[in-house]
Amino acid sequence: MNQIEKYCLKIIEILFYLLLFTPLVISKNFFFPFVAPKTLYFFAVSELIIFVYLILAVSFPKYRPSLNLLSITLTLFLVASILSTIFGVCPHESFWSKYERMTGLLMWFHLFGIFLAGSCVFKRDDWIKIFEVSVIISVIVGIIAIVSNKGIGPLVKAGLDTRGGGTLGNSSFLASYLLFNAFLGLYLFLTLAQKELKIFFGIIFTLVVASLMLSTGRAAAISFVGGVVLWFLLWCIYHQDKKLKIAGISLLIILSSALALAIYSSLLDAYFGQKNVIQSEILDKLSLNISKDRALVWSIGIEAWKEKPYFGWGPENFNIAFTRYFDPRLFIREVYGRDVWFDRAHNIVVDTLVSVGIVGFLTYLLFFCSIFWILWKKYYHHEIDFLSVSIFSVTLLAYFIQNLTVFDMVSSYMMFFLVLGFIGTVASQRKDSGSQNKNFSFNKRRFFIALSIFIPLLLTSLFYFVVQPVRSNKTLIKAVRTPNSEQRFAFYKQSLEISPLGRFQMRENIASEEMKKYSIQQIAQRIPQETQRRELDFVTQELEKNIKESPLLFSSYLLLGKAYNLYARIDTSKLQKAEEVLNKAIEVSPGNQQGYWALAQTKMFQGKFEEAFFLAKKAVLLAPQSKQANLVMVDVGAITAKFTGNSEMLKEALEMALGINPQWAPDVQLLLNQRGVGAIPSTP
After folding, report:
1. Burial of 584 (0-12, 13-18, 19+ CB in 10 A)
2. CA 101, 77, 345, 499: dihedral to nearest 10 degrees?
3. Residue 477: CB partners within 8 Å, gap ≥ 6?
4. How many whole angstroms separate alpha carbon 432 and alpha carbon 379?
5. I need a surface site. Which of 348, 371, 405, 435 has the fewest CB within 10 A?
6. Measured distance CA(187)–CA(429) in Å, rounded
7. Three-state DSSP class for 561?
8. How far apart are CA 136 and CA 142, in angstroms?
9. How far apart are the first and last CA of the chain?
10. Which DSSP state fits 467?
11. Of 416, 420, 419, 430, nearest to 383 (Cα)?
């Protein structure tokens, strides 16, 4: 083996090991400390892997990709995602994503790169070593999550809210990551021949499963249990004993039928409120029912997909599609919970349809089906053993099932593509380093040409996709921690100029943070008007940029309208702008009550109380059972009565609200007391 070849292979191997530490990377000095540092670390290591692999592939043709069904279908899905980005409603967001997620097209380029590198370079034994390190690291991740949930450990001392997810910052993200490692631990335990290693990974497997079950990520935990049951049934079906075969097939039919019935029952309740014995006696008690808010969000997603059926709205644009087709029933919080902002459908089918349309969805299904085709074809051709085909098939099926209620982040994507890399190796059947391509002799000239091309590309990529986002992120945190107004806004401007990554979200977060103090009149009054003008000018200008660059971004319209309402305290001419912006907000998201409420506030500032009441009443009519909408309507009526002496609108609001739900009376009375307009009139 050529020395350069040997060094490249060793560097790629080391970098893959470093990649496995991604779930442990966190930093308080980042905007979204559990997501941004992980993803930027993943980007940096991935780019180094891709760089070394490209040098290797150019210099040694035997490492170049070979065509197989998996690589072809994965490429087709990537092409479909690129087309969806181009034809989507916000290509910027589709490519860059935001710091809270960072799973846009840029992430997929990195994932595709490590898939090619791993599947073209590694052999089966190399992957086994990588999986061994992965499950060991997952135990560390799981233990940190457990101790953090007990209120101890470094994350708790650092004041980080882990939301049950330890270093991953969310229990669902933790569970998705552990799901892969639990199955990998099972695979290692069953396949390793050496007794000491088998015992060791048996213990490791137990610890990973314990961490998974102790997490509150129900979807992954249930999928793991179901996956193990399915694997056992497959073992029975493919066993030589005929009785076991019959038992396995029978149980598989029974359990599949029970699962289909359970899903059907849960959907009936979620969509139509039709309770049944299975739903009330089994699913509810086991907390296996589909929540009504998720079901409603899925239906919103399907309606949005119908508008753009072929290439979708573009990756990372679910939030735009969601607000466009917002269902006002989400504000009936007693039924649908308190969350009214969704940037994911929490369902891989709906998310994929909305983001990349039917073209992307079909390529995704094709790509997923190709995995099972390759594995089982290799098994029937006696090229892989039963444990390999069954465990990896079950792993990917469990992953797909759990993604019907959750979504991926960098750590689960990393595990998914490591498994894909292993299957890519199986598909290529690289039994030795020269089995697939003619081993051309090393060409020094070609090697140095590759270096001269790829080194500048690597440095450029690292600078724009890693270094600049790190600088932008840290500058934003510096701004948040700077009390001096002029310095803070200088840092804000600098952070937005450094990198385009997450720019829409950063502008909105900056605006939200700055508007908090202006929403409290006592605080706002202590701020010099010159400072107020400077700060509010910056906020409104940045939000206007958001709207110009993404004309369907309802959240920016809403924030901008509220900002102009606050600005009107020192400059009443801003009310006209607020009215224009909020009318546009209602046009963008006609079913969202928040636009009507903000515009009603504008109308009250203008002294147009009847128009304000009409808007508040219209918001109630969108979802009459919404307590919040009714209280806003009563509040508008109370303010009108207090400042104009006209109590007719208040009477109408009270009659309407209490007619819908008399049990709201205590909350209504509390609101009236706060406004100083007396008691609810007694009913004759």
Report:
1. middle
2. 20
3. 29, 30, 31
4. 20
5. 435
6. 20
7. helix
8. 10
9. 97
10. I
11. 430
Structure tokens at 2: 């050529």
Question: For residues 527 and 165, what is the distance between their CA atoms, to the nearest angstrom?
Answer: 40
Which tokens in the block code for residue 544? 């206007």
What is the per-residue pLDDT for 438? 46
- At 30 the three-state DSSP class reads coil
pLDDT at 434 (0 to 100): 44
Contacts of 14 by beta carbon, 8 Å cutoff, 6+ apart: none
Query: Nearest 5°: phi and psi at 90?
Result: -150, 80
Cα–Cα distance measured from residue 473 to residue 345, given in angstroms and rounded to the nearest whole number: 27
Compute CA distances 4 → 10, 441, 455, whole Å. 10, 12, 16
AA letter at 546:
N
What are the residues whose beta carbons fall under 8 Å from the beta carbon of 242, sequence distance 6 or more?
none
Domains of the chain: 65-428 (no CATH), 502-599 (1.25.40), 607-684 (no CATH)
Q: What tokens were used for 197? A: 């290693």
Q: Can you read off the two tokens belonging to residue 658?
A: 């209490």
Residue 378 token pair: 């290799």
The tokens of 27 are what?
């930093």
- The HSE-up count of residue 559 (CA atoms within 13 Å, CB side) is 27
Report pLDDT for 672: 92
Distance CA(575)–CA(74), nearest Å, equals 51
**Contacting residues for 656 by C-beta, under 8 A, at least 6 apart:** 617, 620, 630, 633
Cα–Cα distances in angstroms (integers) from residue 414 to residues 178, 204, 344, 421, 674, in the given order? 12, 20, 19, 10, 53
How many alpha carbons fall within 13 Å on the CB side of residue 397?
Answer: 15
Amino acid identity of residue 584, one-letter, is K
Answer yes or no: are the C-beta atoms of 143 and 181 closer than 8 Å: no
pLDDT at 279: 54
At 477, list the tokens: 């945190």
Question: Which residue, 464, 466, 550, is CA-closest to 507?
Answer: 550
Q: Identify whether the C-beta of residue 190 lies closer than 8 Å to the C-beta of residue 149.
A: no
Note the pLDDT of residue 260: 78
The SS3 assignment for 382 reads coil
H or E stretch at 439: none
Q: Which residue has the tokens 């097209």?
A: 105
Classify residue 229 as exposed, middle or buried by CB count within 10 Å of its CB (0-12, 13-18, 19+). middle
Residue where the block lists tokens 């296996």: 288
Distance of CA 299 to CAs 270, 313, 336, 351, 447, Å?
11, 16, 13, 11, 54
**What local confidence, expressed as pLDDT, does residue 264 receive?**
67
Token pair, residue 547, equals 């709207």
The DSSP annotation for 130-165 comes to HHHHHHHHHHHHHHHHHHHHTT-SHHHHTT---TT-
| Residues of the chain scoring pLDDT < 50 | 430-438, 683-684
| Helix axis angle, 386-402 to 410-428, nearest 10° | 150
